[in-house]
């Protein structure tokens, strides 16, 4: 295994752990068995910093682990699928939109595009899951909470990304 693959594996495990921690540290319960947290910011950063595939696995595993450790095991499979898809999409979009440019620094428009798509996948994914498991009224009740959570996560990840991209080891991962 070469040095870059090893670094990516280690940073992937680190992002999964940070996603778990960010999800569990601030934990504000919502109406229908959900909770507001900052883990989605780490999911977004995982996709952007590690690339679509490694970032998707880190975001999905970290989020699912938080559900398992927090007593939300029922949500864990859906969380893994939703957050994996969100991180993959965010990473793919960010890298696709920044590929043609020579600078490797922070770019606001690709970040916002990736963040909004990531937020849409998370909010829509949980809406569909809760629509199937509960009912339409219950699913609709959680949409505003998910949007607030995603807004806070977008702000936090938007503040962290420019700082993290200044670190050569992190910048060279994707």
Protein structure class: mainly alpha
Q: Can you identify the CATH class? A: Mainly Alpha
What can be said about the biggest beta sheet? Answer: 2 strands, antiparallel
The CATH architecture name reads Orthogonal Bundle
Reading the helices and strands in chain order gives HEEHHHHHH
Radius of gyration: 16 Å
Find the count of extended strands (DSSP E, 2+ residues).
Answer: 2
What is the number of domains? 1
Helix count, DSSP H or I runs of 4 or more residues: 7
How far apart lie the N and C ends? 17 Å
Provide mean pLDDT, rounded.
91
CATH topology: Arp2/3 complex 21 kDa subunit ARPC3
Q: Can you put this structure into words, describing what you see?
A:
Keywords: Membrane, Transmembrane, Transmembrane helix. This is Membrane protein. With 174 residues, this protein is mainly α. The protein starts with a helix and ends with a helix. Helix 2 crosses helix 6. The chain has a two-stranded antiparallel sheet with strand order 1-2. A hairpin with a 5-residue loop joins strand 1 and strand 2. It is globular. The model has no long low-confidence stretch (mean pLDDT 91). It has a single domain, classed as Orthogonal Bundle (Arp2/3 complex 21 kDa subunit ARPC3), CATH 1.10.1760.
What labels would you give this structure?
single chain, mainly alpha, Arp2/3 complex 21 kDa subunit ARPC3, 7 helices, Membrane protein
Topology (elements, then pairings):
Layout: H1 3-25, E1 28-29, E2 35-36, H2 39-50, H3 52-69, H4 76-98, H5 108-133, H6 136-164, H7 168-171
Antiparallel strand pairs: 1-2
Helix pairs in contact: 1-2, 1-3, 2-3, 2-4, 2-6, 3-4, 4-5, 5-6
InterPro entries: ECF_substrate-spec-like
Transmembrane segments: 12-31, 43-66, 72-94, 106-127, 147-165
Protein name: Membrane protein
């Amino acid at each position: 295994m070469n040095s870059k693959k090893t670094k990516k594996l280690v940073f992937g495990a680190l992002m999964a752990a940070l996603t778990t921690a960010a999800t569990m540290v601030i934990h504000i319960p919502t109406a229908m068995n959900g909770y507001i947290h900052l883990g989605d910011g780490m999911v977004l950063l995982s996709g952007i910093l590690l690339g679509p595939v490694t970032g998707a696995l880190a975001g999905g595993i970290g989020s699912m682990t938080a559900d398992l450790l927090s007593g939300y095991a029922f949500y864990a499979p859906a969380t893994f699928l939703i957050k994996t898809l969100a991180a993959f999409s965010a990473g793919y979009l960010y890298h696709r939109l920044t590929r043609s440019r020579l600078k490797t620094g922070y770019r606001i428009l690709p970040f916002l595009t990736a963040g909004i798509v990531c937020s849409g996948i998370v909010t829509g994914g949980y809406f569909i899951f809760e629509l199937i498991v509960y009912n339409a009224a219950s699913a609709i009740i959680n949409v505003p909470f998910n949007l607030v959570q995603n807004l806070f996560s977008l702000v936090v990840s938007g503040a962290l990304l420019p700082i993290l991209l200044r670190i050569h080891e992190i910048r060279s991962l994707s």
